[in-house]
Amino acid sequence: MKADTITKDYVKNAVIFADIFNYYIYGGRQAILPEQLIERDSAKAALPYGADGAVIPVQKFRDAQKLYAAMTDGKMEYVLYGAENQTEIHYAMAVRNNLYDALEYAGQVEEAAKSHRKQMKQDRKQRDAVLDGDKKAPSAGEFLSGFWKGDRLVPSITATIFFGSEEWDGPLSLFEMMDVEDPDVLACMDNYHVHLIAPAQMPDEEIMKFQSSLREVMFFIKYAKDKENLSRILKTNETRFRELDRRAVDVIEAVTNLGLEYGEGEEAVDMCQAIQEMRMEERQIGEQDGERRGRLIQAQESARKLYAMGLDADKIAQAVGYAVETVKGWLG
């Protein structure tokens, strides 16, 4: 399975998803609970815009998107959170995420308009286009836009998670993608910033703010190519690494390609043991390669000595145990 598919499935998990935005927005404070997140792909929720509560449109272009719904000060509060997973650096991420958020808002306006049109059609059937009760007919501006004066958009926040061990060197804002220095021109433009999570650019104390297995994933990716620091992190966080969620291990293996071996049916994996076994196997392979190299050098030296003694290539090949053509190559 490809790395991007594995990381998408991992981030869609409500616990991981909540952890991402609790880190980015609240500095690790557990303000967003997994049970407060509604999966966009499988559920629709009534939102406070439109005639009687429009349903939020399902957007399929997101890697992962969830609706946050919680009671705040006696009223429901909604926020749309979207996560974009990258296993490679995307140099137009600011445009891509800006487009996603803009399409989200455009979709909300369209859903509000549909809701209002539906309600007005029902009212016309009931009372010949006269709205009953204390309802008022829409103004010209409301009718034109389809979005009533009292309607409100649901905020959309997109975070990008980079599952790579190198530093992200792509632009992190629209302005960085432009070659404009005139302050008067820039003052007339709205910038858009990429909300990036990239392990190589995060101090260890920042990664420690994650509460889910994303902490171990970020640490492992950050130090995958640094054996000394990886050993330090494994030792410091040994308890958590010895019982790491299988999905997190799948992400680590897909991203780093270390060749970790673990059982198919295991729900938790002892990463400390897996790394030990991997390194032991590497040593054994190294020793075997060294032995093979030693035997090859010895055979080449023997072949040259026998050749100097006057033996032909056929007999030398029999003596050293290699093909005649190979021996001829050694002898030039």
Describe this structure in words.
The chain is of the alpha/beta class and 332 residues long. The chain contains 13 helices and nine strands. The strands form three sheets. A five-stranded mixed sheet has the order 1-4-5-6-7, with helices on both faces. Strands 2-3 form a two-stranded antiparallel sheet. Strands 8-9 form a two-stranded antiparallel ribbon. Strand 2 and strand 3 form a beta hairpin. Helix 12 crosses helix 13. The longest helix is centred in the last third of the chain and has 38 residues. It is elongated. The protein starts with a helix and ends with a helix. The mean pLDDT is 83.
Topology, element by element:
Blueprint: H1 3-12, H2 14-26, E1 37-39, E2 46-47, E3 54-55, E4 64-72, E5 75-86, H3 93-127, H4 140-145, E6 156-162, H5 183-187, E7 195-197, H6 204-207, H7 214-223, H8 227-236, H9 238-241, E8 244-245, H10 246-256, E9 268-269, H11 271-308, H12 313-320, H13 324-331
Parallel strand pairs: 5-6, 6-7
Antiparallel strand pairs: 1-4, 2-3, 4-5, 8-9
